[in-house]
Structures are given as structure tokens and as C-alpha cells.
Amino acid sequence: MNKSKTALMILMSLLVLLPASLVAQDSRQDSINTVFPGDAFSKVATSMGQFLKLEYGAAGAALGGAYTALASGPAAMAWNPAGITTTIGPELYVSNNELYAEITNSYLGFTIPLSGGNTFGIVAQYMSSGDMEVTTLDFPDGTGEQFQVTGLALGVTFARRLTDRLSVGLSSKMIRESIYRETTSTFAFDVGSNFDLGIYGLVLGMSIQNFGTGGRFDGPDLNQPLDVSDDLQSSPTLTTRLLTEEWPLPLVFRAGLRMDVMGGKSPW
After folding, report:
1. 223-227 and 203-212 strand pairing
2. How many angstroms separate the CA atoms of 56 and 62, rounded?
3. Rg (the chain; Cα; Å)
4. What does the DSSP 8-state code read for residue 149?
5. Taking Cα atoms as reference points, which of 217, 153, 213 lies closest to residue 180?
6. Each residue's pLDDT tens digit, 37-91
């Protein structure tokens, strides 16, 4: 009984602290990049790593993303890292989803249970836009060259079953995104929990994903010639590199409830 009370206090503390941290990060970001387009402020298309918000895995995509509390096994690392504690043996999960406009996202996850209620996992997420035609101001109909937008995330996950009702998990991942010949990379963390409420098999799942620093795009197409002085005919022309803005990661907060209607811990 004491363990259940302690677990419930930990969960309630997370519920209080996590929204506060989100507000603090939004305030910091708004203070750095203050933009007021008209009467409204929108953050659409203002972050890198949008592929991290895609629905990885067949089950999660089929449920329209309502998978936070239900995620289990290797696929849980894309939704809620605490879900891998359901692993009873080494498991490998691979999926490939084809989206609109020939965009594809692939997922590979492997989990293995350790002693003491601990579980370890590795995960890889990959997105490709498919071939697109390069267009310029001089060639608006295309130059004949093709390019792709790709995203890759590689990570490791550690989860632990603290009590028979509370599980927590933490993921650390390297994120790399490329557009044509420009790339950016950074690191981020995911944290999640599953708490059995003890009421008709109700389970509360929560996760915060992509908590980390942003990144700047860099590549050869940002090189620009610079004439030191227009007044001197013999002045040298230098090659400079444009410095892009730092793009933040798309911070995602998920929460969900699940209940066993039939079977499992259902009273029916």
C-alpha cells in the first residue's frame, strides 16, 4: 500500500512539473524569436525534425496516434518509452509505412529484458520524402536534378518497472536531418510513464518527446561570394558561409488512458 501511495505521489509530481517546464521552454523560445504575424502567433513550420511527429508502427498509425498508454514492446519507443517493460524476451520490430506524396517512414526497434524489472532497447527511425525536382529562379520548371529530404533518429532506451503498477522509461537519441546538401544534427531525450490506476484495469500513459537543443542547417549551398570592396578593381573575392537560424525540435506531450473492456484486468 505504501509503494502504491509513493508511486501515485511521483506521478502527480510529474503532472505538475512537466506542464510548467513546457511553459518555461515556450517562454524562452518566444523571447528569442518574437514574431507577430497579424493578430495571431503561429509556430507552424518553425521547428526542425518534423519527421519525429509521424506515426511509426502499424498499430499506432491504425489507431490515429491514440497509442500512448497502449504502446508495448519495441514499438513503444516511438510513443512512450515506459511501454517496453512489457517485454518478456528479446523482441525485434520492423515496419515501413508509405504516406502521401511518396513519403515513407521506417522503424526498427529491438528490446531485451534485464534483471530487476529493467528493460533495454535500441531504436532507429527514418523518413524519406522521395525524389523531388530541383527548381531555381532561373529554372522554375526544374533543372533536371533530383533531391530528397531525409530524417534519421538513432537512440537507446532504458525502462524500469518501479512497482507492480508504475513503470518509467527514458530514451536518448541522435537526430539528423538533411535537405538537399544541407544537414543539421542534435540530441534529444524522451521520458514516459505508465501508471495502473487500479480501477477496472485503467492505465494512464504519459510521455514527453524530443526534449533537447535545436540545430542549424549547414552545407555547401550556403557558400556565397563576397567582394571586399566595390571601389577597388583588384579587390579579392572571398567565399563566405551564411549562418542560418537555430531551429528548435518539435516538443511533443502525449497522454492517454486505456482500459481492458474484456479479458486482462477487466471485471467483466
Report:
1. unpaired
2. 10
3. 23
4. E
5. 217
6. 444 555 666 788 899 998 888 888 888 888 999 999 999 999 999 999 999 999 9
